[in-house]
Design a protein that fits this description.
This protein is of the alpha/beta class. The chain is 68% helix and 9% strand. It is built from 13 helices and five strands. The chain has a five-stranded mixed beta sheet with strand order 1-2-3-4-5, with helices on both faces. Helix 2 crosses helix 8 (130-171).
């Protein structure tokens, strides 16, 4: 974690001298922190987001203000250690959890930064190099915001990936429809990532259900390219290695034409035009007497 802090300092060109300037300025700024935070909440109170996230909850406002003062107290002392990094990541996590809009967050950071630099500008005779101190404060505030935004982005990526996984699971239901027969209806756009997931789920289901035939229905797939076609061939080969025959049903005229134009070895796969034909063929492959099975 310390290595990451060093990397961030280097990226934002924050030197030890910058940190020393901020530490020196903290003697002037910290006694004014209550006023700075107060100005921030005056600004925030004029924003629509204030009602959305606080809705008149004065106790919550008080807790957040205290946390904010504690945090800025540490930052203005230029204590950029692991505790600071974790606390800033936690702030990002909270913002991601409540879906705080980025424009509100960045505008708020701008208001806070301006309050700090305005006070540095007023510190005639107290802060010797006001310009260098202002520059150091701005860089530090930008770095601080970056840590939070990075955490927000990480959490959002995880949410998107989790959502994608859930959608993929719902869109690739491998279902037992008869003894020894599985059905996998495919709908929507196919890509390499989705076909890999289909491969994994299919092979697991074949093993779980001791399936002898898989009916892979692609009547809901509108477009097929070379990559997807080859992946489907790989699925049929992999299922074959597990002793399970695959029937690809729902071959539309356009997809049939595409498969031929792509040079796919259609002799290597079993295909039918409709799901009904595919199911009928699956019953024959498993030597299933439907009437006998229903009367059993």
């Amino acid at each position: 974690m310390q290595e990451r802090i060093e990397r961030l300092l280097k990226m934002f060109e924050i030197s030890q001298q910058d940190l020393e300037l901020v530490k020196t300025a903290s003697g002037w700024l910290l006694p004014q922190l209550d006023d700075i935070v107060g100005e921030f909440y005056e600004w925030l109170g004029r924003q629509e987001a204030f009602e959305v996230f606080f809705a008149g909850d004065t106790s919550r406002i008080g807790r957040v203000r205290d946390l904010q003062k504690g945090y800025w107290n540490k930052l203005l002392r230029a204590e950029l250690d692991e505790q600071w990094l974790r606390s800033r990541q936690q702030v990002g996590a909270v913002h991601a959890d409540i879906n705080l809009p980025n424009d509100v967050y960045f505008a708020g950071m701008l208001v806070f930064t301006k309050s700090l630099t305005d006070r540095v500008a007023e510190a005639r005779g107290t802060i010797s190099d006001r310009k260098a101190t202002t520059d150091a404060l701005v860089k530090l505030c930008f770095l601080d915001a970056q840590v939070s935004v990075e955490e927000i982005a990480r959490i959002q990526r995880e949410k998107i990936e989790e959502s994608n996984r859930a959608v993929m699971e719902m869109s690739t239901p491998v279902t037992p429809i008869w003894d020894g027969i599985l059905l996998l209806p495919l709908i929507g756009v196919m890509d390499s990532e989705r076909t890999r997931e289909i491969m994994n789920r299919t092979l697991s289901s074949i093993s779980l259900h001791n399936a002898r035939v898989l009916v892979l229905d692609i009547s809901g797939v509108g477009v097929m390219d070379t990559g997807v076609a080859n992946q489907l061939i790989k699925i049929t080969r992999a299922t074959g290695l597990m002793g399970c025959d695959t029937i690809i049903s729902g071959i539309s005229p356009s997809i049939a034409k595409t498969l031929v134009e792509l040079g796919v070895d259609v002799d290597a796969i079993r295909t039918t035009a409709t799901l009904r034909d595919g199911f009928r063929r699956a019953l024959k492959l498993t030597n299933t007497d439907v009437a006998a099975s229903l009367n059993a």
